[in-house]
Write a structure and sequence with these properties.
Elements (H helix, E strand, L loop, with lengths): L21 E2 L5 E2 L21 H16 L1
Antiparallel strand pairs: 1-2
Length: 68
């Protein structure tokens, strides 16, 4: 990868500027991480999760773009 005159690397990427919200023990969400008594892991058991068909489709589209 070679830098151009603007300092960019020329590598496509995907990102979100959306602020992360964290699940709370009572089922609500908050912009701050939970304290010791709240959820600690970012998995399905604590309120974070993923619909397989959404993440798989996103991954396939990203790989397709990368292989072009």
């Amino acid at each position: 990868v070679v830098k151009n005159s603007k300092g960019k690397l020329g590598v496509d990427c995907v990102f979100s500027t959306e602020a992360l919200v964290y699940p709370q023990a009572d089922g609500s969400v908050c912009a701050m991480k939970a304290t010791a008594e709240g959820p600690k892991r970012m998995d399905c058991a604590s309120g974070f999760g993923a619909a397989t068909m959404v993440t798989a489709t996103f991954g396939f589209v990203a790989v397709s773009h990368a292989l072009k």
